[in-house]
Design goal:
With 349 residues, the chain is mostly beta strands. The chain has one helix and 30 strands.
Length: 349
């Protein structure tokens, strides 16, 4: 008889697992980037925000000397921006930052002075009405580029206005003061316009045609300054002029020229403009369209298409048009619609 088969005896199988290699830790050093931020030539920006791109890191300026600091910034190339983008004195331009193996100190910011920023149609400037001070020509730094003629951009037939030679008391001063100096006045073309040799008062003939442009020249001896003035009909275009908000108080100046250009300034400083472009209107329907062509800063949600009306008191009301306003806590332009303006009169007849 054949014996029954014997079942195999179980044995334990030992499986060895090879340990996974742990990659070595690579230390990437980070560095500090610090500096201060001015908001004018003599004061600091408090509570401003600086942003480092592309990392997205942010830093806030302190309330003592406008100082900020980024920490743990890796080697690389970055762009640093400041918020608010603009302050009264001017606007901050993005700066390129290179971190290469060490801390970066004294990486300071200052606003690019408003008078040197790009802009639209010539701003209708005025003399500082709060000061009785006048300047001699030799008191003005770089007078050849700092002195200008103050006067209207546009005039009606039969109108008159006194033009004034003006300049700043210092290179970075925004306010303009009258400059007292020997001046030889002239206007070209001489047909339809005349200018008083002593006072600089320009008179436009009743017969002057709308669309004519006159050039006024003030020859100061060492150099001359000029200003172009266009003739228009208020009946044909009642919007021409410099308008300011009082009741709503959002837009400091809305400049509308007879040539179809506009410039809006919410937070003014010298000749600074927030944004500018062209405008069209229809008196029969009251439709107004403002089309921005350039800007230093604009409000979010801006809308330049709507309607306008001018009441018996000369108040200009804009409906469904959003030009923005200045928000003091954030130091930014913010969304704002519905505006009411009165026309400014900078110049004495």
């Amino acid at each position: 008889m054949t014996p029954p088969p014997v079942a195999p005896t179980p044995t334990s199988l030992s499986i060895q697992v090879k340990p996974t290699a742990v990659p070595p830790t690579i230390f990437v050093p980070g560095y500090s980037v610090s500096g201060d931020v001015l908001d004018s030539s003599t004061s600091f920006l408090f509570g401003g925000t600086l942003t480092l791109e592309p990392s997205g890191q942010t830093a806030t300026t302190d309330h003592t000397f406008g100082e900020y600091e980024f920490t743990d910034v890796k080697d690389g190339e970055y762009i640093v921006t400041v918020t608010p983008t603009c302050v009264a004195y001017g606007c901050y331009k993005p700066k390129e930052l290179i971190v290469d193996g060490s801390d970066v100190i004294e990486f300071h910011f200052a606003p690019f002075v408003a008078s040197l920023l790009k802009g639209g149609p010539p701003a209708a400037r005025s003399i500082d009405a709060t000061s009785s001070r006048v300047l001699a020509l030799d008191e003005i730094e770089f007078a050849g580029t700092s002195v200008l003629l103050i006067g209207p951009n546009d005039m009606e037939p039969g109108g008159s206005a006194r033009l004034t030679v003006a300049g700043p008391a210092c290179l970075r001063c925004a306010d303009l003061l009258e400059v007292v100096t020997a001046t030889d006045w002239s206007v070209s073309p001489p047909v339809g316009a005349s200018i008083d040799a002593e006072t600089g008062t320009l008179s436009i003939s009743e017969a002057a045609s709308a669309g004519t442009t006159y050039t006024v020249t003030a020859d100061l001896g060492a150099f001359a300054v000029t200003k172009e003035i266009s003739i228009y009909s208020a009946e044909e275009n009642p919007l021409v002029g410099v308008w300011t908000e009082q009741e709503t108080g959002n837009v400091a100046t809305l400049l509308l020229t007879s040539g179809g250009e506009f410039a809006a300034t919410i937070n003014p400083y010298g000749s600074y403009q927030d944004y500018w472009g062209d405008y069209t209107f229809d008196s029969s329907t009251g439709v107004l369209e403002l089309i921005a062509q350039g800007w230093n800063q604009v409000a979010p949600g801006g809308d330049g298409i709507g309607t306008f009306s001018i009441d018996a008191n000369g108040q200009l009301s804009l409906s469904d048009i959003c030009l923005g306003k200045w928000d003091q806590p954030t130091q930014l332009l913010v969304d704002n619609c519905e505006h009411k303006f009165i026309k400014q009169s900078y110049f004495r007849n």
